[in-house]
Design a protein that fits this description.
single chain, mainly alpha
Amino acid sequence: MQNDAENLNAIAQWAVSLMESLGAPGAGLAIAAENLFPPLPSEIILPLAGFTASRGTFGIAEVLLWTTLGSVVGALILYGLGAWLGRERLRRIVERVPLVKVSDVDRAEEWFSRHGAKAVFFGRMIPLFRSLISIPAGIERMPLGRFTLLTTAGSAIWNSIFVLAGYLLGENWAAVEQYADVFQLLVIAAVVGGVTVFVVLRLRQRAGGKMAS
């Protein structure tokens, strides 16, 4: 608990220093950094930005504009990384990863081609996933205008919820992070469970192949 409080205070102080130095653009810069480095939690930065707006440091519309712009800029950088990485380079990397096949990449590409728009839009509202989804979008070369529009819409919804919560809660802005933590833990548990099932099935598949041979 003490470590969590220290981490929250450190991140809050860093975000406050940015906002004090740069105003609302500082909140946007913090959110852009959060997109590139997912361990930085937007669930702390956004409510804090809303609280700061409630004190009259800058307007609520201004902070919503800059945080959404920061989200889009961070997502575009990761999109560019995916586009630079490309399909063939990704395949070469996958070939060296244990328990993963190139055919898995093919299925993932097929899934993204069918659900890419929904994944980009709703992915902006899922902790951790909101950063990672930009990379396959870049690899698959989703039309940049479409990617930007979906990212902007999803980010605007996510950012507005947390900024407005911090604005309305005022001094109690940190309470938002408690509820966000529960949601994030559920998402992480679902991802870990899915990965575990995948690994178990793949090991059984390999064991069955060896027995057949």
